[in-house]
Write a structure and sequence with these properties.
Blueprint: H1 3-29, H2 35-51, H3 53-67, H4 73-99, E1 110-112, H5 114-121, E2 127-131, H6 140-146, E3 151-154, H7 161-173, E4 176-179, H8 184-196, E5 200-204, E6 214-218, E7 221-225, H9 228-236, E8 240-247, E9 253-257, H10 269-290
Parallel strand pairs: 1-9, 2-5, 2-8, 3-4, 3-5
Antiparallel strand pairs: 6-7, 8-9
């Protein structure tokens, strides 16, 4: 069997079983109270921490880069265990959200800073929701859609069409519009259009961007960061508002909407983009510092991009 045929078969079978498994979990989660997610995540998170040495070492290494001067190794390992708990809880929350009525789970989420979003949308240029893989970030759009806002989310392309169709159907049912980052031209066009319609565009901007990223400080280290939020904001006039769904004790969650990130325009567009990218990265860092266990430290955030080929004459 050729490699391409094997890959297609693997993707098809993975898509089929993932879709069936998700359907089963949705049915099962209808019978569970929200507190059960905490119990399940503690068990599964502990197992993942113990079994997956590669990712355990990566999380501990990343935490050491960020907090090595503030915490000793024992504290960092203790924090790493909590990271695996929160990392496990995130997909379970998404499934539970899909399985249950809004009033049972989503509408119980508190909101702080809604006035900042309303003021931003009053200007008519839309709003860019700046997100991160922090807390219950996958619930953010559903909570705002439940309030009547038109919410657009860019979600990574996947080789699982059945699974993505199920996710897209659920998203549209609750008022969210989903689209992919690729092809890039289509994604940019859709992003611009939704902002021009005075809607919300959700951009998660805390992952390492190996190609096209800008080097800005993150926990004192150079991190290549996607400049998309800055480019779209400067092009459309849409303000960037930090938005994070943070977990409290037990099943408490709060959607925190921050003030718009200030923009100082100059005649140098490239410089403006880099400065704004550094500013929103600093905001994300501040949130992660306050809630370090709730951020997904599995990303290789400080990995350098591949070397560009030398110009040949």
């Amino acid at each position: 069997m050729r490699e391409t045929e094997f890959k297609k078969l693997r993707n098809w079978s993975g898509d089929f079983f993932a879709d069936v498994f998700l359907a089963f979990l949705i049915l099962a989660f209808r019978c569970l109270p929200p507190k059960a997610l905490i119990f399940i995540s503690k068990i599964v998170g502990s197992l993942l921490f113990c079994l997956f040495k590669k990712y355990r070492k990566r999380v501990i290494g990343n935490l050491s880069i960020a907090f090595g001067r503030e915490k000793d190794l024992h504290e960092i390992k203790k924090l790493a265990r909590k990271v695996f708990f929160h990392f496990t809880l995130t997909p379970l929350e998404s499934i539970y959200m899909a399985a249950n009525p809004l009033e049972r789970f989503i509408l119980k989420m508190k909101m702080n800073g809604k006035e900042h979003l309303d003021a931003a949308l009053a200007n008519g240029n839309g709003a860019i929701a700046l997100g991160a893989h922090l807390g219950s970030f996958t619930l953010l759009g559903t909570r705002l859609a439940a309030e009547g806002y038109v919410f657009n989310t860019i979600i990574k392309n996947a080789n699982f069409p059945k699974l993505m169709k199920r996710i897209d159907t659920h998203g549209r049912r609750i008022g969210q519009k989903l689209f992919f980052p690729k092809p890039a031209a289509t994604s940019i066009k859709k992003s611009l259009n939704c902002l021009r319609r005075n809607e919300i565009l959700y951009l998660v901007a805390d992952e390492q961007q190996r190609r096209g990223g800008l080097p800005v400080p993150f926990f004192g280290q150079r991190a290549y960061t996607v400049p998309g939020p800055a480019i779209l904001s400067l092009k459309t006039g849409a303000p960037i508002l930090p938005m994070f769904v943070l977990r409290g004790n037990g099943i408490e969650r709060t959607l925190v909407i921050g003030r718009p990130i200030e923009i100082e325009r100059t005649s140098d567009e490239k410089s403006d983009i880099k400065i704004l990218t550094a500013k929103f990265t600093e905001v994300i860092e501040e949130a992660v510092r306050r809630y370090p266990s709730q951020w997904a430290w599995l990303n290789r955030r400080w990995k350098l991009p591949p070397q560009e080929p030398e110009n040949r004459h």
